[in-house]
């Protein structure tokens, strides 16, 4: 049954139909086959139930926060600050790009938004200093994917919405893996740059210049502390935290940096409306499919199959990681979350697997999906911004896919890297 659902979905998507609508059609057909006309009568309430959630209000708010900061030139301010501290080191400009992306991830929640702003700000200086074109593209694309691992993370928020896991715990679980990925990208960058020696060095900044730049960046860097700290301390819910984040972003952009005006706010609202609408259509369609999956008891059938095969939990986890990697090459990340997670989560829990740890390796797999062809969204975003052939972006990003896969293996072998911090702060 599950194979038939996937085959039908892929066939529909191959026609070019929007993902959310395609998922919904498959769900309607599956529900009709399983329940008959009763499933059609329940369709309106099923669609509404999919998006009738207070927690989901956080999605447009986090997107709006990211849009305001992006249009306010915050990424450029952060990159300038990090470059003042690290730019004079060997490969320092490339390392600065990775560090800036990690900081940017903590104030966007979206890999696509993070990669887009990094492509605009970091790629031109890298090329101007003599860094290899493909290496620069791959570095910025891979570092941009940190946006969904380092909190606040929209996919983590959706994971918590589906599984009812603590959003605070999920956000905290992403911090150490995010730092691990950042360190791995820096290490690879240093190794690559130490071989060539063609990049032009940046003059070392004075201490006065460093502190001046750092002081200017502090208001923006306070945002993740306010948002994540507020959630975990219980000061406000994730939705309230997103609203506070938007308020602080406006204060930073309008009053402190004075780079955001009415035109930027209107553009941010328009972009947020478009992005949110696309996400909500996917969520609504996925809820229709999820209802059909529940009625057809597909999760129970899969659990029975796993139990019959007598697979150890680690083998099942490894199989799901391979499945997610394959799906990531042909489906968009939010679609995968809403299609696969409702099926996998009950099985994961029944096998005694820590769902917080699984959320981290699931999210890292989705990071990889963002930069793997043919559907990797970050690839297309960078192609549109840089006006370069997508084949050139893909060639540059392939070595970094290997780095991320290496990080995934490490996190699978050492679950404590993901669970230690949430457990410590409980």
From TrEMBL:
Which family would the database say this protein is a member of? Answer: Belongs to the TRAP transporter large permease family.
Lyase among the record's keywords? no
Where found in the cell? Cell inner membrane
Give the matching PANTHER family: C4-DICARBOXYLATE TRAP TRANSPORTER LARGE PERMEASE PROTEIN DCTM (PTHR33362:SF5), SIALIC ACID TRAP TRANSPORTER PERMEASE PROTEIN SIAT-RELATED (PTHR33362)
Function comment: Part of the tripartite ATP-independent periplasmic (TRAP) transport system.
Domain TRAP C4-dicarboxylate transport system permease DctM subunit, residue spans: 6-417
Q: Which domain of life is it from?
A: Bacteria
Q: Return any one Pfam family short name.
A: DctM
Classify the protein's membrane topology as the record does.
Multi-pass membrane protein
Keyword set for this entry?
Cell inner membrane, Cell membrane, Membrane, Transmembrane, Transmembrane helix, Transport
Entry-linked InterPro entries: DctM (IPR010656), TRAP_DctM (IPR004681)
Chief location bin: membrane
Spans traversing the lipid bilayer:
46-64, 85-105, 111-128, 135-154, 166-192, 213-235, 241-260, 272-294, 314-344, 356-381, 393-417
> Is Electron transport one of the keywords UniProt gives this record?
no
Protein's organism? Falsiroseomonas selenitidurans
Under the subunit heading, UniProt states: The complex comprises the extracytoplasmic solute receptor protein and the two transmembrane proteins.
State the name under which the record lists this protein: TRAP transporter large permease protein
């Amino acid at each position: 049954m599950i194979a038939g659902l996937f085959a039908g979905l892929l066939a529909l998507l191959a026609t070019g139909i929007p993902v959310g609508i395609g998922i919904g059609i498959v769900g309607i057909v599956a529900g009709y086959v399983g329940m008959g006309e009763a499933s059609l009568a329940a369709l309106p309430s099923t669609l509404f139930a999919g998006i009738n959630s207070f927690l989901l209000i956080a999605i447009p708010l986090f997107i709006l926060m990211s849009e305001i900061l992006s249009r306010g030139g915050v990424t450029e301010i952060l990159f300038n600050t990090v470059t003042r501290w690290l730019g004079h080191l060997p490969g320092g400009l490339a390392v600065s790009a990775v560090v800036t992306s990690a900081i940017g991830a903590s104030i966007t929640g979206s890999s696509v938004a993070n990669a887009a702003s990094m492509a605009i700000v970091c790629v031109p200086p890298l090329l101007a200093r003599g860094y290899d074109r493909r290496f620069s593209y791959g570095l910025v694309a891979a570092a941009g994917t940190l946006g969904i691992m380092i909190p606040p993370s929209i996919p983590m928020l959706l994971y918590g919405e589906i599984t009812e896991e603590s959003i605070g715990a999920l956000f905290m679980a992403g911090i150490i893996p995010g730092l691990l990925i950042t360190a791995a990208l820096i290490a690879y960058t240093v190794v690559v740059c130490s071989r060539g020696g063609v990049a032009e060095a940046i003059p070392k900044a004075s201490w006065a210049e460093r502190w001046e730049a750092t002081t200017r960046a502090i208001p923006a860097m306070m945002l993740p502390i306010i948002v994540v700290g507020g959630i975990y301390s219980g000061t406000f819910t994730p939705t309230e935290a997103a609203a506070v984040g938007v308020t602080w972003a406006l204060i930073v952009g309008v009053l402190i940096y004075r780079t955001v005006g009415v035109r930027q706010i209107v553009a941010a609202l328009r972009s947020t409306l478009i992005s949110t609408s696309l996400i909500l259509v996917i969520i609504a369609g996925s809820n229709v499919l999820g209802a059909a999956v529940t009625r057809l008891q597909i999760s129970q059938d899969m659990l029975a199959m796993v139990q019959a095969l007598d697979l150890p939990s680690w083998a099942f986890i490894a199989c799901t990681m391979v499945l997610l990697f394959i799906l990531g090459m042909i489906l968009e990340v939010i679609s995968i979350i809403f299609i696969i997670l409702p099926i996998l989560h009950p099985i994961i829990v029944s096998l005694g697997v820590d769902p917080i740890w699984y959320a981290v390796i699931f999210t890292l797999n989705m990071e990889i999906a963002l930069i793997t062809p043919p559907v990797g969204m970050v690839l297309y975003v960078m192609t549109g911004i840089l006006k370069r052939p997508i084949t050139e972006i893909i060639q540059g990003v392939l070595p970094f896919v290997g780095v991320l896969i290496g990080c995934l293996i490490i996190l699978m072998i050492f679950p404590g890297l993901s669970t230690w911090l949430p457990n410590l702060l409980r």
